[in-house]
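Dear colleague,

Thank you for sharing your sequence with our group. We've completed the structure prediction you requested, and as agreed, I am returning the results in plain text so they can be pasted directly into your records. Please verify that the sequence below matches your submission; if there's any discrepancy, let me know and we will rerun it promptly.
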Amino acid sequence: MSKIIEAKNLVYEYYKEDDNGKVIDKIKALNDFSVDIYSGEFLVVLGHNGSGKSTFAKHLNGILTAKSGTLIVDGFDMKDEKNIFPVRQNVGMVFQNPDNQIVATIVEEDVAFGVENLGLPQKEIRQRVDDALETVGMSQFKKRSPNQLSGGQKQKIAIAGIIAMRPKCIVFDEATAMLDPTSRKHVMETMQMLNKKYGITIIHITHYMQEAILASRIIVMEKGKLYLESTPKEVFKNVDELKRIGLDVPDATYLIYLLNKQGLNLDPTILTTEEVVNALCQLK
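Please find the predicted structure tokens below.
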């Protein structure tokens, strides 16, 4: 499997200042961070606030630039500023608050905004906008004002705007954090569809463990470093380690953990309620 992103020994620092602008602390948001991300995978990034997740995400399309280390995205070295524009055509970003990404007063105009910046013919732009809205199931809203949409629908419009640019990779930086459970479910279904049907690499940063179990691979960040890396089953069985760094595990996994502490010998890699039921039924 080919690599779409190669990060090696990335360091990014920021400075905390007092009210007078004097530097009072220097923090390494990325601290010798290395990871490879493969084309077509569904990667979830976990970590508590301040672990470096969003900082890493902002490096992937040139919003931030590392102090040191190497970052290759889609074959482009991100140290070179002239590579930022071609990378942004192939690595889209969807952020936490969809209102911050909406720039037009009509849905279809908003979806067209990024594509128009590519300088494509009008006919091609029209086709891409229609295809993107169809992909996220929002075609019937194309003439609406975004202000008339729910939070989940707005996020789908933000995703459609990225899809219209035909990227190889989409980074969702806590894009479900401000949504209600139903809207979160719809956005997660859209992510899965984009990954499975179109082969788009998905990088999903989230605090929701039930979303994380859908990944093909999880990386856990802690203090700007790579802390754990494996499949959801292998990552979440490390309940004590994850709790120690301030992270939860899926409810089903934690239930199994507690039952095993009471003397049962159940599979610690269980992730879902259905698996819990099957495991308990086999004890009879």
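Summary note from our side: Residues 181-198 form the longest helix (18 residues).

Kind regards,
the structure core
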